[in-house]
């Protein structure tokens, strides 16, 4: 059907010498070609084109930058930024071939999702595979995230997405009938129950290999806080050894390659503060399945400034979690909790590590709300043990904590993960600080989770471990005018200034009477 | 309310010496800081942070890359990529200050749109202002485009967006009561009526300062085709002189800074093939208002592979255009036309320029469908002249064309815009080509606009001016097996190969009987 009029239609072979360019472009592969490079001209590349670089049977995609300085890259060379160079994995001076990158295979499925169509299982698999292989540009990645935002995914699509995310990463198998885990959907500053629950249930003998995320939009995730006490970036083999020896661990899922697509998606969701039900369910459940969990207790806090603001909304989210969990064959127990205010006192990695250690040490200064919540959730997990009667879990958890067995187990886990020096009596807090005082006398009638989180993040948390907010009063406390409500710590003057401006602009505390307290009807 | 505990909370002044780094990052401002630079460490920047660079009262935003090579950037220096350096507009070695960039002002409005809220006039103004000032990252830009996709904008929001896009750019005032223009929503390859209509209506004495776009997803826009004949990137003053002298011009809107936000949005819409009704209306009408138009004839082609596929859809789009045009005080005449197949013979800049010049020259080889369509649309525009009776426009337009007055006017405009050598008898076509033959005898019963456009783009159009597709048969033509249906031209072997593979995979032509022809009921 096609009549040839040309001497040769073969694409030119485009060989160049690899050069490592000492520029750190962070997760964005960049290739540098000199403007006078014959390949650049012959192939009709443009700056910002995606090109494919091959060497030794490996291939990577990179965004092209065009260079006019021979000291950065010569005419026979292809430069690669640090990350791209490491990914290609060959030495300086190695021969590489380059070509215009073909668009990712799943582009058609992406375009259909953008125009509002329902996608099938194989579409989600193709998209997630391309994402995990870093074949999507920032633009394509963002388009996928926004097109799946809000209620754009139906519940079966959420299952397809979760399933695809599981299938693309490594999956752990602990060879035990029960592997338990607990997770919170987030949004409540200071809510570090995992660091208490893991040592409690592990001390009870249950297997609890906890992989946590870093903060996405919050001032600290469990991984950020645990990192104050120990190393959280563990190779899988070491993680398995620790879990075998101690029945638990507190590591970071990203390093363990458990859900590689999720980490890429988060790099876009974070700056857009996107956290839709579908993406939340897929992200959480895929990581749990990949980590080998069989039983999960899920904490959904509800309150005026929590992620979930009403009981009907909480119930809708619960049903979506339950539907997808069942399709993934995960046993799920959803607990709807009080999310009217931050949990514990400290917000930020060091401050939260301080609270956790005080609870484990049975220190009288420990925040009781965090202690109680952790005990109740640990109790629910313990009741997954078929030898435990329903309702007995809480008392067992409390006994493990009171007796110091939880502390001992935590110390073992910390040591196994490469413990760092930390003294909860002298936590290494940011050198700069300011205090916010009660403007009038009365009762603390409201604490804004979002505003507290914002102030803590502006102060530098979680990037600056020592930064954050320390809450000296909680809901229902009586205060007198001029009393300290909270103290903000920062590591850098500019951060302190940003935090102060935010704190001055919108008060995170509302002072009223006991009648003004928001009401919630939850289990705990 | 805020008690001070720190000696000084002022942000450190971060002065560095500016260095131009000869890397072309195309529209993405990049700043380079050495990892050992004191400012980098003190400010707690990260690779990919957005930083603000100030000098001489000007400020730009840039994405940070961290460098470990002192030959690229020293410890006291701040490097800027070519575009960023040009934008800041100070000399090498100048002192600059850097700081962490504050998020764009319109972030809150963007987040509200992402979560599905309706935005107000001031929200759109804030967003469009930030976009035009390049304060949005690729992620934020994509999120805005996808969140406004499909029917997410109601008609008043489309007006707000259009109005904001007008207000942010320059706006021309021609000091005449009638400034006419014509525009097509696109999607039909070869549809180059503007290059015929402008000289016809200008020869009639009407003011028609046509600013066109380059191709977004098509093989050629009017600006790309006009660029074969003359310069289209004209400074505003020169454009005004040409229009005063000749009553018309054919220039590129982007260069003229008429709708700076639109160009930035297109950089994201293009790779995602997004072309939603709201964005289409805002993009087209804002550019017309900015160019000073008072009367617009709008061409909406309809057909099985056109952008608009059914009459109800065309009517919905017509009403949206009419609503927004009225709010913008633009007189609008919408014409729904036959979009079942490409218009004219050539697809691609050089081939389309050939067709246009043959029509103007009254050459017998000229494609009659393009000629007829241009005459009818020109007639509609001429009827905006209050001295012309309704229905007389077509005959006037035909007389101007037949008499050679349109050709003379086109030659004047080409010369004024810096004419290039072009001979329509020997158009400089791509040196490589292949032909596609009829697989059987019959009647051409279907030509796929999308597939023809895809093949022409793969062949290199519009980047390679000489590349494209030349259609030798059109709908309704009788063909015999082995007869040439179309010929593909390319400039590079790889392009030819891509085009051939696409052409082999899916046929752009359907051969059947005269009864198989798709039907449309349109004006022309």
Automatic annotation (TrEMBL), chains A, B:
Q: Does the keyword Metal-binding apply?
A: no
Sequence ranges assigned to domain Pyrimidine nucleoside phosphorylase C-terminal in this UniProt record: 443-512
Q: Which chain positions lie within coiled-coil regions? A: none
Keywords for the protein's UniProt record, in alphabetical order: Glycosyltransferase, Transferase
Q: Name one GO biological process term.
A: pyrimidine nucleobase metabolic process
Q: Which reaction does it catalyse?
A: thymidine + phosphate = 2-deoxy-alpha-D-ribose 1-phosphate + thymine
Tell me which SUPFAM superfamilies the record gives: Nucleoside phosphorylase/phosphoribosyltransferase catalytic domain, Nucleoside phosphorylase/phosphoribosyltransferase N-terminal domain, Pyrimidine nucleoside phosphorylase C-terminal domain
Could you say which protein family the record assigns here?
A: Belongs to the thymidine/pyrimidine-nucleoside phosphorylase family. Type 2 subfamily.
Q: What is this protein called?
A: Putative thymidine phosphorylase
């Amino acid at each position: 059907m096609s009549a040839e009029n040309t001497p040769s239609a073969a694409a030119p072979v485009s060989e160049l010498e690899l050069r490592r360019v000492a520029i750190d472009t962070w997760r964005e592969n960049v290739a540098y070609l000199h403007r006078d490079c014959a390949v650049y001209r012959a192939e009709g590349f443009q700056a910002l084109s995606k090109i494919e670089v091959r060497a030794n049977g490996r291939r990577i995609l990179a965004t092209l930058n065009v260079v006019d300085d021979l000291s950065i890259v010569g005419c026979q060379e292809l430069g690669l930024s640090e990350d791209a160079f490491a990914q290609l994995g060959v030495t300086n001076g190695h021969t590489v071939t380059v070509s215009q990158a073909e668009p990712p295979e799943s582009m058609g499925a992406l375009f259909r999702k953008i125009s509002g169509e329902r996608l099938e299982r194989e579409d989600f698999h193709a998209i997630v595979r391309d994402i995990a292989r870093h074949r999507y540009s920032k633009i394509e990645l963002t388009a996928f995230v926004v097109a799946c935002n809000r209620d754009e995914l139906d519940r079966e699509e959420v299952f397809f997405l979760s399933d695809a995310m599981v299938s693309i990463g490594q999956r752990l198998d602990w060879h035990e009938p029960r592997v338990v885990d607990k997770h919170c959907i987030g949004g409540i500053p200071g809510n570090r129950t995992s660091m208490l629950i893991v040592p409690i249930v592990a001390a009870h003998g249950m297997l609890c290999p906890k992989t946590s995320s870093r903060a996405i939009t919050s001032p600290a995730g469990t991984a950020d806080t645990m990192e104050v006490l120990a190393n959280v970036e563990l190779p899988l083999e070491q993680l398995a050894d620790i879990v075998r020896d101690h029945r638990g661990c507190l590591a970071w899922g990203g390093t363990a390659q458990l859900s590689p697509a999720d980490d890429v998606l988060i790099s876009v969701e974070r700056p857009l503060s996107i956290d839709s039900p579908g993406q939340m369910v897929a992200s959480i459940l895929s990581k749990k399945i990949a980590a080998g969990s069989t039983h999960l207790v899920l904490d959904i806090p509800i309150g005026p400034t929590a992620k979930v603001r009403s009981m009907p909304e909480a119930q809708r989210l619960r049903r979506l979690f339950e539907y997808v969990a069942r399709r993934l064959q995960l046993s799920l127990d959803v607990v709807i909790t009080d999310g009217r205010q931050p949990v514990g006192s400290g917000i930020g990695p060091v401050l939260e590590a301080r609270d956790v250690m005080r609870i484990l040490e049975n220190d009288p200064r420990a925040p009781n709300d965090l202690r109680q919540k952790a005990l109740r959730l640990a109790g629910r997990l313990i009741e997954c043990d078929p030898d435990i009667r329903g309702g007995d879990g809480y008392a067992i958890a409390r006994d493990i904590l009171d007796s110091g067995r939880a502390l001992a187990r935590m110390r073992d886990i910390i040591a196994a993960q490469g413990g760092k020096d930390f003294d909860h009596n002298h936590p290494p807090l940011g050198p700069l600080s300011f205090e916010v005082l009660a403007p009038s006398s009365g009762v603390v009638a409201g604490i804004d989770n979002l505003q507290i989180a914002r102030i803590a993040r502006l102060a530098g948390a979680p990037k600056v471990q020592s930064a954050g907010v320390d809450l000296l009063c909680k809901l229902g406390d009586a205060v007198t005018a001029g009393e300290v409500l909270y103290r903000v710590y920062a590591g850098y003057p500019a951060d302190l200034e940003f935090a102060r401006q935010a704190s001055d602009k919108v008060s995170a505390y509302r002072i009223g009477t006991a009648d003004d307290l928001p009401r919630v009807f939850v289990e705990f």
